[in-house]
Amino acid sequence: MGTTEAITTSEGQEAAALLERARQAVDPELRRALEGLPGPMRRVAMYHFGWEQADGTPAAGSAGKAIRPALVLAAARALRGGGDGPDGGVPDGAARAAAAVELAHNFTLLHDDVIDEDVTRRGRATAWTVFGLPDAVITGDAMAALALRLLAQDPHPASAAATARLASCVIELCAGQQADCAFEQRPYVPLDECLAMATAKTGALLGCACALGALYAGAGPDEVEALDAFGREAGLAFQLIDDLLGIWGDPGHTGKPAGADLIARKKSLPVVAALTSGTTAGEELAALYAGPMAGDDVRRAADAVERAGGRDWAQAHAADRMGRAVQQLSRAVPDLGAAGGLLSLAEFVTRRTR
């Protein structure tokens, strides 16, 4: 979903403005970082971000929603009291930290597309389908290293702590991805294991983004950990909504085919909730997941997930996780009025319907 989508709530309008400001602040840092890659990798990266065509000519594509960079900047601002100085309350260097987080995120996207054999992202062909598997994987590796170098070379006093935190986060992300892949080979996956996987795969980076913002604001250890916990809880809510979109999302907004996760027989959170529901619909879904999806199977599988309660569970659990996120945020920012940006972003990503 693009940031230009019509948004009617005041929170949504604020979030859209924050995302746009984050994109404007972070894109120059990203471009400078990517320019430092060797030619072939730079070409893949610039294509992946939507800034170039496959032949290297300029493109006006989307580099993504910038949720994670926006969280870095909003967290830094919240820990500075939400001031309205010339930099909007964001400390020097926070845009570089936000760019590092975005590079780490896109490293995972390049690899996820290969692992999941996805052929479209952001409305066009994925990098691996254009440049081949080796170049896509290697460019993803380079992006992860680039993210860490961006932080390590930053003169900001929080640089060392931020680098170590992002490095640990990348390891956790990889563990989450490995568990996700392993689940596909297992006929039964307990829901608690699936939640732990989603926390590592998605929540960890959102938590890291918020923690880096706190570090760059000069926050103490307790505030940094509270912001990390906020991001993790919000990240799990985000993943729950993303999983719902993977089944019922509008392809025109998701950039992926309808029911893409079902076609891939992914054990997403709504699917696992349905499979472990002990219902007849859950058994029907298990039978469909036992073989390739063909013909009307995708529609039948989506219907089975809904009848087994997977859709309702995911929506309710997302709301519960957001409640926990706000509790964690209040530990670091007792006056939640100063954290309006973080709350607007969290509300925005968990209220998506397409």
Mind sketching the topology for me?
Elements: H1 10-35, H2 39-48, H3 67-79, H4 94-116, E1 120-121, E2 124-125, H5 127-131, H6 133-152, H7 159-183, H8 191-216, H9 221-248, H10 251-254, H11 260-263, H12 269-275, H13 280-289, H14 297-307, H15 310-332, H16 340-350
Antiparallel strand pairs: 1-2
Helix pairs in contact: 1-3, 1-4, 1-16, 2-6, 3-4, 3-8, 3-16, 4-6, 4-7, 4-8, 6-7, 7-8, 8-9, 9-15, 12-14, 12-15, 13-14, 15-16
Short description:
This protein has helices at about 10-35, 40-50, 65-80, 95-115, 125-130, 135-150, 160-185, 190-215, 220-250, 250-255, 260-265, 270-275, 280-290, 295-305, 310-330, 340-350, and strands at about 120, 125. With about 350 residues, it is mostly helical. It has a two-stranded antiparallel ribbon with strand order 1-2.
Q: What would you say this structure looks like, in words?
A:
This protein has 354 residues and is mainly α. Helices cover 69% and strands 1% of the residues. It contains 16 helices and two strands. It has a two-stranded antiparallel ribbon. A hairpin with a 2-residue loop joins strand 1 and strand 2. Helix 3 packs across helix 8, helix 7 runs antiparallel to helix 8 and helix 15 packs antiparallel against helix 16. The N and C termini lie close together (7 Å). The N terminus is likely disordered.
Provide the helix percentage.
Answer: 55-70%
Number of helical segments with 4 or more residues: 16
E-strand count: 2
Cα Rg: 20 Å
Q: Could you give a short account of the major beta sheet?
A: 2 strands, antiparallel
Low-pLDDT runs of 5+ residues are 1-8, 83-87
Q: Give the SSE order as H and E letters.
A: HHHHEEHHHHHHHHHHHH
Overall geometric form: globular
Question: In what order do the strands lie side by side in the largest sheet?
Answer: 1-2
**N-to-C span:** 7 Å
Judged by helices, strands and strand pairing, the structural class is mainly alpha
Task: Report strand %.
Answer: under 5%
Average of the residue pLDDT scores: 90
